[in-house]
Write a structure and sequence with these properties.
Elements (H helix, E strand, L loop, with lengths): L1 E4 L8 H14 L2 E3 L10 E8 L2 E8 L3 E4 L1 H6 L4 E7 L3 E6 L2 E7 L3 E5 L4 E5 L5 E9 L16 E2 L6 H14 L5 H18 L8 H21 L8 H8 L3 H9 L5 H19 L5 H7 L5 H12 L3 H8 L1
Antiparallel strand pairs: 1-3, 2-5, 3-4, 4-11, 5-10, 6-9, 6-11, 7-8, 7-10, 9-12
Helix pairs in contact: 3-4, 3-5, 4-5, 5-6, 6-7
């Protein structure tokens, strides 16, 4: 991961450096700020490769951003951009798009090589993540992104939680290899294209993306409900809006059943609690991890670790 901050530059030159080297050179945008505010400017960003795609997290004090025709000509990237607003909010506008604002946690999508303007809504400035995905190999034959102006992903759509789950998996996957990230990057891109009406939901690629996204969200929901003994396929399928049969098929394609996945996550959680919470009894650990009985916990733990939970705790103490 590459990180950079204006703390590395003399305060008198920070905004000028950010504008010419970082904003224009790296992001392909024009940055503007009144001279009297430039000395107090602060900006930082990180860049991590996700195979051919890139994940940028940016934080900066307020300034105006515009991607102009000249910027596009000098720094075309031919990419699908998926934004996540973090904190505060941002306003978007431009000649070809309806004005809109995004609040904390919201997503927006666009094609990289279209003009736009954006400013933060609040004094805390910019804080956002962007995943930029090269168009090559993600756009279905005959489709064009030339009209994909910036637009928010509506929270009430069924696709929003699927897009968010794939996005979060990529953000959280610090140790993932390029090969591991590639299928999830493609699924994220295709979910975004389905949401924008570029890809037909019933197409083969769209169905594959939806399966990947449903599996991503299913795993996230399992972790959220892991401590509950009421965690069942029916619960997760209902939250996903799919059939129980469809849910089982999603997991079977991974080589692990739903039940095996839940058990593995509960055992991993129990090992962590046994290491970190010496004040908890074995029974408290078992029930905190969602095991329905102490006998079940002992049987599964012993099968996994070839020792009892008590022996495991004593060994790692």
């Amino acid at each position: 991961m590459y990180t950079w901050s204006t703390e590395q530059v003399d305060p008198r030159d920070r905004f000028d450096y950010w504008r010419e080297v970082r904003a224009k050179g790296l992001f392909g945008v024009t940055a503007e700020l009144e001279p009297e505010h430039r000395r107090d400017f602060f900006g930082e960003f990180s860049l991590r490769q996700l195979g051919d795609a890139g994940l940028v997290e940016l934080r900066a004090s307020p300034y105006r951003v515009e991607r102009r025709a000249g910027d596009i000509a000098e720094a075309a990237s031919d990419s699908l951009c998926i934004y996540q607003q973090l904190g505060g909010g941002g306003w978007f506008g431009g000649a070809r798009l309806d004005e809109f604002a995004v609040r904390d946690g919201m997503f927006a999508t666009s094609y990289s090589d279209l003009p736009y303007r954006t400013v933060p809504l609040h004094h805390d400035g910019f804080h956002l993540r962007i995943i930029k995905i090269p168009v090559t190999n993600i756009v279905p034959p005959g489709a064009e992104l030339g009209e994909l102006v910036p637009k928010p992903v509506q929270d009430e759509t069924a696709l929003q939680p699927l897009l968010e789950s794939c996005f979060r998996d990529l953000v959280e996957g610090h140790d993932a290899s390029a090969a591991d990230a590639a299928p999830l990057v493609q699924a994220l891109a295709h979910i975004a294209l389905i949401e924008r009406g570029i890809m037909r939901p019933k197409s083969r690629l769209a169905q594959q993306a939806l399966r990947s996204a449903h599996l991503s969200l299913a795993r996230r929901l399992i972790r959220r409900h892991l401590s509950s003994a009421a965690l069942t396929p029916t619960l997760i399928a209902g939250l996903l809006g799919i059939s129980v049969r469809h849910l089982h098929i999603l997991f079977e394609e991974t080589g692990n059943t739903f039940s095996e996945t839940v058990t593995a996550l509960r055992l991993a959680q129990s090992r962590r609690l046994l290491r970190e919470r010496s004040g908890q009894t074995i029974a408290e650990v078992a029930f905190a991890c969602g095991f329905e009985s102490l006998a079940t916990f002992y049987r599964l733990f012993n099968a996994s670790e070839s020792m009892t939970p008590g022996d495991y705790r004593a060994r790692v103490a």
